[in-house]
Amino acid sequence: MIRIVISDDHELIREGIKKIIRASKDMRILGAAADMAETSQLVAQHAPDIVILDISLLGQDDLEGLTVLRQQFPNVPILILSMYPEERFAIRALNIGASGYITKTMAAEELIKAIRKIMSGGTYISPHLAVILACNLPEPANAGPHEALTDRELQVIPMLGSGKQVKQIAAELSISISTVIRTGRAYSRRRD
Questions:
Q1: Taking the domains of the chain in order of start, what are their residue ranges?
Q2: Regarding the domain delimited by 2-135, which CATH topology (the fold level of the hierarchy) does it fall under?
Q3: Could you state, in chain order, the average pLDDT of each consecutive group of 10 residues for the chain (192 residues)?
Q4: How many angstroms separate the CA atoms of 11 and 95, rounded?
C-alpha cells in the first residue's frame, strides 16, 4: 500500500487529487494539508511513503516549501504538483531534491504513473521534461555570464536595471519585497 500526504492550498485541487488516488486500490491517503505547517505535522505524524506538494503554498515563494520539507524529512520522496509549466521550475525542483514534477494540466493518469515511478525508486520525468533536460545540457566553459543566472534573477535583474522600484517588482512578480532584495544582493555578490 502506497501511503500518501497531499499538500495544496486549494481545497478543490486537494479533493480532485483524492478522487484520482482513491481509484487506485494500492494507494491510501493519510491526510491533506493546506499549508506548510500542517504538511510538516502530517508527515511527522504519519511517515508517508510520498508527499504530493503544491509548488506555491500560501506563505511560500517558489520552491521554498520543497526546500523546507527536504530539510525536515530528507528520506520522504516529494512529487511537485504545479500550475507552472515544466520549463519554469521542473529542473530546479529536481535539483533541490524533488522526486518528480507534474503540472496541474496533465491527465489524471500521469499523477498515478508518477507516484508509481517514484515508489519503484525512480524519478518521474514526463516526455516533455525529458526534452527540456536534453536541451539544458551544461554550457561550454566559455558561456557568457548571463548563462549562470537563476530563473528568479532572470526575472528580477532586468527589472531592477530598468529602474523599477523594489515594491513594484515584487507586486508584478507576486513575490515578497525581501525576495527581490535577496535576489539583487545575491546577483551583486556573484559579480564582485
A1: 2-135, 145-191
A2: Rossmann fold (3.40.50)
A3: 94 94 95 93 96 78 81 95 84 90 89 95 87 69 62 81 84 85 76 60
A4: 28
- The count of other CB atoms within 10 Å of the CB of residue 111 is 22
- Identify the CA nearest to 8 among candidates 57, 63, 59: 57
Contact 148, 190 (CB under 8 A): yes
CA 184 – CA 188 distance, rounded (Å): 6
